[in-house]
Amino acid sequence: MKKTVTKALVVLMALSIIVGLAACGKKTSQYVGEWKATTASAQGTEVDLGTLGLAVNISVREDGTIAVTAAGQTEEGTWKEIDGGISITSGGESMDLKMADGKLQMTEPDSGLVMNFEKQQ
Hints:
Strand order of the largest sheet: 1-3-4-5-6-7-8-9
């Protein structure tokens, strides 16, 4: 009887460990989701993109792909997490977006244009 109880306890403990490890599995990145460009700034001037009727959206997918939609056109690409943000690649071009104040910021190095993306709920 004592051996049966001991075996049952060992099996229950093993199952608990397996279930616990499964629950700790791959965690979804904070960057996965829909992001909408809300503001852009250049040379000290910030503009609300909604007032201009401009819509730029980034769909960051859990499978490592992205879709960037602007002016009715959608470009597909890939993304990976980097220190403090994500790096996106599309059409052979790569660009880093850094997290600042809860927003992803895309900076165009040549013009200094900064576009802020907010995560949609």
